[in-house]
Specification:
This protein folds into three domains: 8-72 and 170-340, Alpha-Beta Barrel (TIM Barrel), CATH 3.20.20; 84-160, PK beta-barrel domain-like (M1 Pyruvate Kinase, Domain 3), CATH 2.40.33; 353-469, Pyruvate kinase, C-terminal domain (Pyruvate Kinase, Chain: A, domain 1). The chain contains 17 helices and 21 strands. It has helices at residues 20-29, 43-60, 112-117, 173-185, 198-208, 221-224, 227-233, 241-247, 253-267, 289-300, 310-313, 318-333, 336-342, 353-368, 381-388, 402-407, 425-438, and strands at residues 8-13, 33-37, 65-69, 84-86, 92-96, 106-108, 123-126, 131-138, 142-149, 152-154, 159-160, 189-192, 213-218, 236-240, 271-274, 305-308, 372-376, 395-399, 414-418, 447-453, 462-469.
Length: 472
């Protein structure tokens, strides 16, 4: 089950992929990471799926990452008498905190935090932007609004405030319960929804306490104003284009996607591009040409991973969607233009031995045509430095920690292997050569580049670069 592509695939599990056989088919088709959407399903559902993933991991002897995705605060309208209300542009409505069902002129909005952020001229988007409201007058418990666009308001639909920073935490009480469950379960990554500011990430990281990587989902324009700070604090980032596309003009999303990917590559943090990538494959055996191009664009930009949501959670062609994504990635990575684009920018190494060694490993591997770069790591930081370089050669990560190996299954070009630390120099070389050959990356006579730290087994002590040849 060795993958010979650099970009990774994240597949969301759901009702359509609930059985061991279905999860196995996704892995066989090319999934590297499984996303558990904690907005849906019971803890028992997720516990059962987790057991299936770990059984799959044991069967194939290949680390698999599990991503627990928190729901985040959901802002919704209250109930409407009859369930819906016909509206038209120019209508005047009143929003208030009263939880009683709304009517022709009054709409319940049971969120004091929204009223705290409203001011004259503010815009509210309802039902993924199908309805647009402009604030005429705002108070602490009510607001008068005018309908700008839309024909129908349905109760309990989501509400977005583009550009506003709301005085709420990214972690609700439900999220805190789900977070505790996900960590107890053993999730390798925790995705934090509705990130608005660096403090949201800091709060989550304090609760996670190193037991998983924290992935900030960027779906609020306000977060983009502090992008570099959020990337610095996060362990990884997701470009969550669903809500992002609601709260900003659709034509602005592609540029912001490229900006986020570039910021993450600069920082050496894994970045996932998500939402509606192969959406038509929910009900069709083939994607549109535009969707294939969308996936390809993320790969050309050097994203670590691309993600499938409804396509694999509820879609009729879940395994086919994963296989299609894998084929797109393979074709892109075989294109000479891909190497030019991915290598158009190389980050300047920091003045540390680890950065210097890792940068040198890429240069040596490319100069000598090495078949693989093998990194010994405990925490994973050395391997992420290697991935930041985007080398042409695959990165074989050797680590004694299962948690590190699983987490690195998300990272670009990394093939993680769980093995004990090298005992001495000769053991380091022989173990690296054997794993690279066994995985199919290197053949007899090929060279490999090896990075490690001396004394062996010392975290964060990468200070050694060695070349070895596969015997034969």
């Amino acid at each position: 089950m060795t993958r010979f592509r650099h970009a990774k695939i994240v597949a969301t599990l759901g009702p359509a992929t609930d059985s061991e056989a279905a999860i196995g088919s996704l892995f066989a088709a090319g999934a590297d990471v499984f996303r558990f959407n904690l907005s849906h399903g019971s803890h028992d559902d997720h516990r059962r799926r987790y057991a299936a993933v770990r059984a799959l991991e044991a069967q194939y002897g290949r680390p698999i990452a599990v991503l627990g995705d928190l729901q985040g605060p959901k802002l919704r309208l209250g109930a409407l008498a009859g369930g819906e209300l016909a509206i038209k542009a120019g209508d005047r409505l009143t929003l208030d905190l009263d939880t009683a069902p709304g009517g022709a002129k009054r709409i319940p909005l049971p969120h004091p935090e929204i009223f705290a952020a409203l001011e004259r001229g503010s815009e509210l988007l309802v039902d993924d932007g199908k309805v647009r409201l402009r604030v005429l007058r705002a108070g602490k418990d009510r607001a008068d609004v005018e309908v700008v666009a839309g024909t129908r308001l349905s109760d309990r639909k989501g509400v977005n405030l583009p550009g506003a920073v709301l005085p709420i935490s990214a972690l609700t009480e439900k999220d805190r319960r789900d977070l505790a469950f996900a960590l107890e379960l053993g999730c390798d990554w925790i995705a934090l929804s509705f990130v608005q500011r660096p403090d949201d990430v800091a709060e989550a990281k304090k609760l996670v306490a190193g037991r998983a990587g924290v992935m900030a989902k960027l779906e609020k324009p306000a977060a983009l104003d502090r992008l570099e700070e959020i990337v610095e604090l996060s362990d990884a980032v997701m470009v969550a284009r669903g809500d992002l596309g609601v709260e900003m003009p659709p034509e602005s999303v592609p540029g912001q996607q490229k900006r986020i990917v570039r910021a993450c590559r600069h920082a050496g943090k894994p970045v996932v591009v998500a939402t509606q990538m192969l959406e038509s494959m929910v009900s069709s055996p083939a994607p549109t040409r535009a969707e294939a191009s969308d996936v390809a664009t993320a790969i050309y930009d050097g994203a670590d991973a691309v993600m499938l949501s409804a396509e694999t959670a509820v879609g009729q062609y879940a395994a086919e969607a994963v296989a299609m994504m894998a084929r797109i990635a393979a074709v892109v990575e075989a294109d000479p233009i891909y190497r030019v684009q991915v290598h158009s920018v190389h980050e300047t190494p920091e003045a540390t031995s680890a950065d210097a060694i890792t940068a040198a490993a890429r240069q040596v591997a490319e100069t000598l045509g090495a078949a693989a770069i093998v990194t010994y790591t405990t925490s994973g930081s050395t391997t992420l430095r290697a991935a930041r370089e985007r080398p042409a050669a695959p990165i074989v990560c050797l680590t004694p920690r299962a948690a590190t190996a699983r987490r690195l299954a998300l990272a670009w070009g990394v093939y993680p292997v769980i093995t004990e630390d090298a005992h001495d120099f000769d053991d380091m070389v022989s173990r690296a050569v054997a794993v690279a050959a066994e995985a199919g990356f290197a053949r007899p006579g090929d060279r490999i580049a090896i990075t490690a730290g001396v004394p062996f087994g010392t975290p964060g002590a990468t200070n050694l670069l060695s070349l070895a040849r596969v015997p034969g």
